[in-house]
């Protein structure tokens, strides 16, 4: 399901500025915009929040999240 920024922030229970920060730091994908989102973005926001609750900085996540995406992509290809 496609969502705009406001809808995604509401569904993820975060401020719109938080989502914009995630996009700015490339945490929702390297070519992501703040215009259109989908259900997979809710999953990634949940992952980001989990990492942050355990002390991972946005800077560290900028390096980690592309690896998580790549691993998920490989797992999807194997199934």
Can you walk me through this structure?
The chain is an all-alpha fold and 79 residues long. It is 67% helix and 0% strand. The protein contains 4 helices and no strands. α1 packs across α2 (16-24). The longest helix has 21 residues, at 58-78. The radius of gyration is 12 Å and the shape is globular. The two termini are 23 Å apart. The mean pLDDT is 90.
Q: Total number of helical segments?
A: 4
Strand count, sense and closure of the main sheet? none
Helix content: 55-70%
The secondary-structure class comes to mainly alpha
Number of strands: 0
Please mark out the parts with pLDDT under 50 across 5 or more consecutive residues, or reply none: none
Distance between the termini: 23 Å
Order of helices and strands: HHHH
Strand fraction band?
A: under 5%
Radius of gyration: 12 Å
Oligomer: single chain
Q: Shape from CA axes?
A: globular
The mean pLDDT is 90
Main features:
79 residues; mainly alpha; 4 helices
């Amino acid at each position: 399901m496609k969502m705009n920024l406001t809808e995604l922030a509401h569904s993820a229970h975060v401020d719109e500025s938080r989502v914009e920060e995630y996009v700015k730091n490339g945490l929702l994908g390297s070519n992501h915009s703040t215009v259109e989102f989908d259900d997979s973005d809710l999953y990634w926001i949940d992952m980001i929040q989990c990492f942050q609750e355990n002390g991972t900085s946005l800077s560290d996540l900028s390096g980690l999240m592309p690896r998580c995406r790549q691993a998920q992509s490989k797992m999807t290809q194997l199934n």
